Each structure stands twice: as C-alpha cells, then as structure tokens.
Known about the structure:
This protein is of the alpha+beta class.
Amino acid sequence: MHIAILAATALTGFAVVNAAGPTGRLGDAAIFQDNPVGVTYTATLPNRETTDVRGFVTGTSNANGTGVNFIVNLSGFPDSSLGPFLYHIHDQPVPANGNCTATLAHQDSYIRGEVPPCDPTQPQTCQDGDLAGKHGNITTSSFQTAYLDLYLSTAQGPGSFFGNRSIVIHTSNTTRLTCANFTLTSGNNTNGTVTGSNPVPSPFTGGAAVTYVGSGAILAGLAALLL
C-alpha cells in the first residue's frame, strides 16, 4: 500500500511537471542568483565575405546578482524569406578557423534538447542558451533588443556560465550564417582579474555539471526506483 501511494504521488508529480511544459533530464533551469556584479561578456560578429550580418551580443551581470542583462544589436540580415532568424548561445567556442559548425549544439545545461520548441512563457523549461526561443526571434533586417535572462551566469563554474561559449546566428532552417566567441570585456572574473581569456569547455557528451537540479530530475529518479 505504501509503495502504491508513493508511486501514485510520483506519477502525479510527473504529470504536473509535464503539464507545465517539457523539461530537461536534470529538471527545469534554476534561476542563478550569485553572479559577480559588474562582469560583462561580449560577442562581436566578425566581418565575413559570406554574410552581411554584423553586430554584437553583450551580457552583463544584473546589479543584484540575479540573472544577466543582455543587449543585442544586429543588422544586415538577408531577405526576410530566410527568416525569422534565430540566435543562440552554443556549447563550444568558435575555433581559430571560424568554423561555426564546430560550436556544436546549443548550451543545454539541463539536457533538454531542441524538440519541442521553447515556450517563451515558460523559460525555465527551455535550453539555457536558446535566447531566441526565450526572448524572441529576429524578424527585421536591423534588430535591437534588451532583456534580463534569469537562467544564465557570468560566474565561472556552473553549466549556466556562457562566457567561454559562442553566439551563433541562423536562418529559419537552422543554417548557420555567422558566429563569434564571448570574451570578458569588463569586471572581475572568479580569479579577481580581468584577463579576457576564457577556459574552453569540454565537448558535450550527454552529461552536464550544474549547480542546481530541479524537481523534474528528483521525480524521474523516484519513478525509476519504483519500477
């Protein structure tokens, strides 16, 4: 009887999580509250002969340490028939040869995957690097926006840290138009100095080191024990 009640409780909780939206294998993304104040990382798109897209994406720690304030300023997008255009933080940095494919997949600390698409009304259920999914696609040839993202970090260590990763711009069919690495442009890193160089993250292999684990992972583990 006790096992049956426990199983029913776990399944009920699992149903509630699913009703709230898809989530990662490690649960929903956690709000990051310990960002070092005044730290800014910027990704500036290079001049490429293959595209006219130019601009930058800047992320600065929120004044209270919770989340990151982003400023996006992009222009030069091609014909609107190729849009809406997408932009994401990708797991790996751009190599010296500029190959955007080498950035691999989106930053995805909670192992959510790209399907189904992100629901912007439930950003905690989205990939942490899916900026377009959480905050809106690019629908004009010149695009400027600013917003607070609660689920990313300027503190080195957790999987939500984006300062050693890259930004990638896509057409609507996910073709990669251009890309750039984030670099430290102001503030102190975890070592207390501004160096501008960021450690390269290990390639994503199906797992992720994170600071917090959401309730979805706990419920999934409980359900597994009952099988």
